[in-house]
Amino acid sequence: TAKKALGQVAIDVVRSSQQLHELKQSKGFGVLARAMRAEHPGVVFARAAAIGQTDPLTDLDSRLFVGSPPNSE
């Protein structure tokens, strides 16, 4: 029926967007990149602050997120 087909389309869209989100996640190891991947980013920031860790913003996604130019020059 049309309802079932529409329901399947909705499920496919959600599944596709989840897969795209997983592929697009930052792969960096800096504080901000890890926080962007984390379910609870505050914990990542708190742990980093506790040990005095800073983020050199070498990850492209982190640089763009904070408004820095894409290159580190």
From TrEMBL:
Protein name: Uncharacterized protein
